Description:
Number of strands: 6
CATH class of the largest domain: Mainly Alpha
Helix content: 55-70%
Number of helices: 12
CATH superfamily of the largest domain: Tetratricopeptide repeat domain
CATH topology of the largest domain: Serine Threonine Protein Phosphatase 5, Tetratricopeptide repeat
Oligomer: single chain
Shape: elongated
Order of helices and strands: EEEHHHEEEHHHHHHHHH
Largest sheet: 4 strands, mixed
Radius of gyration: 25 Å
Strand content: 5-15%
Amino acid sequence: MISIGLFGSISVHRDGAQCAGLSAKQRQILGILALHPGSPVPRGELAEHLWEGSPPRSYVGTLDSYVCLMRRAMGLKAGRSSVLATTAAGFVLTPGADVEVDLTWFRRLSRAADVGTGRPALEWAEEAVELAEGVLLGEVPYAAWAVRAREEVDRDVVGLCTRGAQRANGLGEYARASGLARRAVDRDPLCEDAWRQLMLAQWFAGNRGSALMTYAELRTAMKHELGDEPGQQSRDLYLTILTAGVAPPGAATRSTAPITTLLRLLRLELELAPGVRPPARDAQLSEVAIRVLQTSGH
């Protein structure tokens, strides 16, 4: 079994042992082919990617030599029937029973999670996210082809995490929902859907203080990146959590509410509101904060 890894550094393992001797250019060729499993990549396109628009005149022979050496290092045969084949249309990598690519498995598990139901779908989502733990093509940080692929996969991971968190919240798996939602916002701090799922998971678990702190994180990210406040849905959820009990009906509850955290957040909110002077007594904070929030639409 040959395992090709694209998350983190590009790597190749055969029966558990790393295949040594691949140069940086050869690993990049493998990465480009693995992004398009089963589809030939023309030599000219490979050359444009590898040499960033300025390939040498002898690039055809150079690429053929690279691929020949790659097959030898990976223990693969040559020819059109090879897993790493040379065709008239270019080079093609075809994963199958003997070759697996972590990105291909991520996509398969993601599709299974999206069409599945219940806890099995949640488990598939979590398994896919685990595969995508590292940075895609991390050893190629600046090449345009790698940046495009990384951005696309990042969007896929954020979407999968967000949908998985929503599913986990619906199943009452609040810790798992929190984990998935946190991974989403770590990759995309502006994904409000993921922030809301994180807030809901914390609130449903009986930790209202953490949910309100999470909203503060969202607000900071929005201010820093966009100079704007969170959207209406996020503000509505924040206000609902702020004015409701420690947890919604039927959710898990803790023995005591995080009073200290709540009071600190309320005081901070009032200090940020223009023209508002926070009351000295903690007992008056909630009443004043709710009035200000309702008036300002914040």
